[in-house]
Write a structure and sequence with these properties.
Substrate Binding Domain Of DNAk, Chain A, domain 1; 32 strands; ATP-dependent protein folding chaperone; Heat shock 70kDa protein 5; 5-stranded mixed beta sheet; alpha+beta; Heat_shock_70_CS; globular
Amino acid sequence: MKIELIISLSIIGLATSKTSYVESNEVLGIDFGTSFVSVGIFRYGTVEIIPNEYGNRMTPTYVLFTETGDCIIGELAYLKTGHNPKNKIYNIKRLLGRTWNDNFVQNLLASVPYDLVNVNNKPYVQVNLRNKTIQFSPEEISAMFLVQMKQLAEKYLHGTIKDAVITVPAYFNDQQRQAVKDASAIAELNVLRLISEPTAAAMAARIHSTEEDNVIFVLDIGGGTVDASIIQQYEGFYKAIATVGNTSLGGENFNERVYSQLVNQYIRRTGKIFPYQKADMKVRREIERAKRALSSVKETMIEINSIYPGEDFSWKLTREHFKHLCKDLFSAIMSLVNKAMIYAKTDTHDITDILLVGGSSKMGTIKDLMTKYFRKSPRSDISPDEAVVYGAAVQAGILRRDNGTDDILLHDIYPMTLGFEAAGGKMAAIIKRNTPIPYRKSHIATTAKDNQPNVEIKVYRGENSLTKDNEFMGKFVLSEIPILPKGGPQIEVTFEIDVDGTLTVTAVDLILQQRWSMQDLSQSIVFKDGFNKLSSSEVSQLRKRIRPYVENEKKRKEKLNIIDELERVIYTCYYIVQEKTDWLDDMSSSAATTEILQQLLDLKKRIQNITNISASRIITPSSNINLENIDIREELEKHVYTLRYIIQINMDWLEKNQDATWADLLYQKNRFYDFVKETINELTTHLMT
């Protein structure tokens, strides 16, 4: 059965656009995060971050499969409500390279609204499309985001692109890194280099700094991972000194804490069962908004409209309560910070720059804790959201040999100890943690018994003396070795890590010169729970599998364009107005008239920008505004609450009318714009009277 794929406002399919592009030699820099994905290029000596179809430089990593078989990716998928929450997929990066039996996956089963199923010991997402269940691998879903970035860049550059540099968490293991490469291959992107996110952020710091000699501490808190890294920069040379991390900790863990508390408050207050299916995405969006708001205000209201028909729910969250709820999570992050400093054998006074990277690093408590630990403030001139994609674009420029990158050299590290299991289950370390890469080292292994016919090599990574306490990465069997007394065979085991942080293990019988490889499937090799690089034929099959979802996009595009625009404008207006509501509740009573006026003008300007509505007159802070005849605070309150009312009516209408005709949607859009324009013009008139 053919299934249609509707993807935001643009076709992001594989070679489906009719636009004719010439081949470009640009290399993309892609920050593929847990919550957002972004893309940039380096040209003309500077970084350009490419905006999506909504003008935003970060695209949410959300996919929504509708009951009619449509699929929406990115910004609109994040905003849309009223659909089956089991068909809205997010945080897919947290599943890359993991097995079904992974403790993290098992714990995730209870916290995500969508279904996860076991397919060959890998977690797949399962969605319902036209009364049929379909499973997608994390690599396939990830490929959809990467294709979208590729298409955005090709439209921006008017040329086809095939190469990319992609960032990954420093603590991603081999399976996770390979999964990113496989997703890229499905998206028809050739990965020239994988670089760690903290190192990319440090490279971005150089763009904004005139200093030539720095020791940079990078704390990267993404949606699903945390990395703490120390990077030395001398002129154009970057050397990672130490990295520690946690691939199961991130901003989503903080959101889940608040979510659980909110549910408990709702049940305690109403005695009702919490409506997970109906309210899930509304709650998650509000929690994310509240978490960001608490970086600048002391408290905020989490408001869930129509949690049940005719019933709204609100709950006040203060900065102190949030800090208390997540106390152990903050402690876990600072423990990583301290561990990184210990591994680097450095002191706080040696750190010249502190970079907070990732959306969740903007939490006020993180800044306070880091300032206290290092006795200096983190840098504020670098965007936490964009530092990583900046660095990725710079690395892309280096590989393309762009002007302005000649003096930049990057040396990354492998963050953990690698070795194999020796007698007694002991860890025989071959490569120590924080070793610069690329790197290669060999070790001579032998038999433990007389006449032993084969040897099993089990590869682990971790810092514990016993392998049972470390991470098992894979094994392979060396067969047909010489039949000799124990200790007789001489087997050279070589560990090699390339610049992407990918491990290859080989073994050579020095007597027979027979060679085995952990990546040679013709030998007796068992990779960790069946994880191996996808073959070219498998990549081709998966590429074909997602293509039908793209090729039918145009059938409903015209209608969807209006829905996209209306939802984008309504929800963006909602967040602007909510921000002003928070400010009114927290600050306006003590604010000077000029501050309130600035908030009022900012509200007006941003609403006009997002709706493209021109007011009857242009007003700036220097305009001749008559403040004697009006109560400026009352004016701000009045227009904030008027806009909230208009927005809420239209949000409700959209939620109830997803199947409206094109004509009805156009009418509703024009009606909304008319109401907003009338409100803005009324405000203009009042200020200038």
